[in-house]
Structures are given as C-alpha cells and as structure tokens.
Amino acid sequence: MVNSPSKPQNYDDIRAEIVSLLKAARSSAARNVNTIITATYWEIGRRIVTLEQSGEQRAEYGEQLIEKLARDLTRQFGRGFGRANLRQMRAFYRAWPEPQIRQTLSGEFAHTGDRGEIASNSAVLSNPSGRFPLPWSAYVRLLSVKGEEARSFYQTEALRLGWSVRQLDRQIGSQFYERFTLSKNKAAILASAEEAQNRDSMTTEEAIKDPFVLEFLDLKDEYSESDMEAALIQHLADFLLELGDDFAFVGRQRRLRIDDNWFRIDLIFFHRRLRCLVVVDVKVGKFSYADAGQMHMYLNYAREHWMKAGENPPVGLILCAEKGASEAHYALDNLPNKVLAAEYRTTLPDEQIIAAELDRSRLELENRRLRAE
C-alpha cells in the first residue's frame, strides 16, 4: 500500500495565510473595478455637460447629443451606454461637481493622440478610491434621493458604517434621513443604523457580478441563484423544445433593467405559429399574485423593447415548482382582444402537461442529489 504523503510542518498556517491573501486580493479587485467604473462614468458625465454648455442653448440639443452618443457607444462597446445610462452619468456629474474631483480627474484622464484614450499611467486608474469610495450602483441609488442634504447624509452614513448597496437601499426606503431629522433622540437613531446587518453583506462574487460591472466590461451573465433552479430551467427548456418545432430558443437568464432595478428572465422563446415571444419565469415555491404582477411587468417591457414589427404581443408562462404541487400559469391579460387570447390558449401547450413535467423534473433532480450524497 502506498503511503499518502505526510502533511508538511506549518502547512495549516501557510494555507490560512494564502486563503487570507486570495480573499483580500479578490476583494481589492472588486473594489478597484467598481471605483474605475465610477470615475469613468463621472468623467463621461463631465464631458457631456461640457459639450452641452458649449453647444446650442436648447433642451433638444442635449437630448440629440445623448441620442447620438447612445447609438454610437452601444454599437462600439455593447451594453451599458443607452440613453438612460448616459443621462444618469450626466446627473452624476451634476450632483457631485466637487472642485477637487474636477481638478484631479481633468488632469488624470490624459489624452493620447486624437483618439482621446485614457493614458495607461493615469493616476485615476491606479488610485481613484479616495475620490469615489462607493461603488457605481450606490451612486445610482443615491441619485434617486431628492435633496442635496439627504443625499449627502446617506453618502456619509454609507461610508461611516460600510453599508452595502442593499443596506443603503433599505435605509433610503425606510426614510432613515427623515426619521433622523424629526427625531429628538438622534443618537439613538444613528446607533440603530450601526447594528450589524450581515444578511445584507455583499460577497466578492456578487460585487464582480454586479449588473453595472458586467455592463461596463460587456460580459455575459448566465447564472442562476440556485443549483435546483438552474437545473429546472435547463430541463424545461429541453422539454418545451421537444414538444414540436413551434418553440424556437431565444435566450436564458436574460437581464433587464427597469428604472434602477435589475431583473432576470429565466427563459425566452419565440413561438413560430403564434408569431410571439414566450417569456418563462421559474419559481422554486408556491405561486403568488406578486409573481403575476412581475410577469406583467416583464411582458410590458418585452412588448416595448423586444417585440418586432408584425409580431403578436408576448405571452408569459409562470412555473412554480412547489414540492408536490407544481403549477403552470399563462399570463394572457395583456392581449388586445379575446379572439387572440382564445387562439393562444388553443395553440400553446396545456398548462397541466407543463406542470406535470415540472413536478417530474424536480423529483428526478432531488433523487439525483440524494443518490450523490
């Protein structure tokens, strides 16, 4: 019998040091990416405002500039540079026009030739954290706060307490600033915000997979929140494609942005006979009215942004994989007339057949997991 190699002396200490080093490096990388994104977007906003001020003094001129930039930048750099995002960059510069930021960044974003590229030795790329200590997603959330004093308060508290974006979002949503200004015991209000909120802490992986980071780097995002959900989505995609040649696969885990919120659609198909998109949302749990409301929001977005000329309105399919009681529901309320709704119902696969397949797939996956254990 071959003896296994003995563990070197002090191995545990060395391994712990390497683990700590890697965690710190990954965390630093995530912070640096976010900081560079924020500094870049601030500079884009500055240049848009500068160009607007040097152009015609008309509101239409600013919108035409945004429209042209959005079209050209999206063509060259992909997602993240649409009209809404560029307006946000412009608003970001206007909300944070501090002289020290303007002075440092104006010099640091050096130009090389006529192309206007950022110089590789620019200080903003090597050490921008002191100027923009929060990630871009936090500044996006702060931009929604009305009032300079309230915005400054939330920024100060986020820095003082190290709030994640989720924590910042919850404090703004709970009107923390308003409660603070009205309270007679302000120390108690501030103390309550200092309580640990570990459930909202953002991991390094989540920071890297922040939708704003993925947009900036033009990276694809195809991951699910759980292994079971990911496996169910894949099984159901295969099942729907096997039902016949009516379903054509369009996309999986498609992100969409509505205002400052991000959502992810599990599956998108095109139904050839109905000439419409089919939006599929998988829930590992019981069906609720909130699921229906979210689906209708998806359908409204799909109808406005994804529907092509000559196509019928999109239809939604909500799949709920609660243990022992799987359900499938079509969302047809968005259709313009009863005739079209009736055609959809007779053409689309029966909900009970899909629910049965959903239940079978879930049971098979659970048994496979148990056998692996």
Helix content: 55-70%
Largest sheet: 5 strands, mixed
Query: What's the shape?
Result: globular
Category from helices, strands and their pairing: alpha+beta
Low-confidence segments, given as residue ranges, are 102-128
How far from one another are the termini?
28 Å
Strand content: 5-15%
Q: Going across the major beta sheet, what is the strand order?
A: 3-4-5-6-7
Give the number of domains.
2
The radius of gyration is: 25 Å
Average pLDDT figure: 75
User: Based on DSSP secondary structure assignment, what is the total number of beta strands?
Assistant: 7
Q: Count the helices. How many? A: 16
Topology:
Blueprint (H helix, E strand, L loop, with lengths): L10 H44 L4 H19 L5 H13 L3 H10 L2 E2 L4 E2 L4 H4 L9 H8 L4 H14 L3 H9 L2 H7 L3 H8 L10 H5 L2 H7 L9 H16 L4 E12 L2 E11 L4 E8 L5 H17 L9 E6 L6 E5 L6 H10 L3 H22 L1
Parallel strand pairs: 5-6
Antiparallel strand pairs: 1-2, 3-4, 4-5, 6-7
Helix pairs in contact: 1-3, 13-16
Structure, explained:
Mean pLDDT is 75; it is low at 102-128. The protein has helices at residues 11-54, 59-77, 83-95, 99-108, 123-126, 136-143, 148-161, 165-173, 176-182, 186-193, 204-208, 211-217, 227-242, 289-305, 338-347, 351-372, and strands at 111-112, 117-118, 247-258, 261-271, 276-283, 315-320, 327-331. By secondary structure, it is α+β, with helices and mostly antiparallel strands. It is globular. Helix 1 (11-54) crosses helix 3 and helix 13 (227-242) packs across helix 16. It folds into 2 domains: 11-217, no CATH class; 227-372, Trna Endonuclease, Chain: A, domain 1, CATH 3.40.1350.
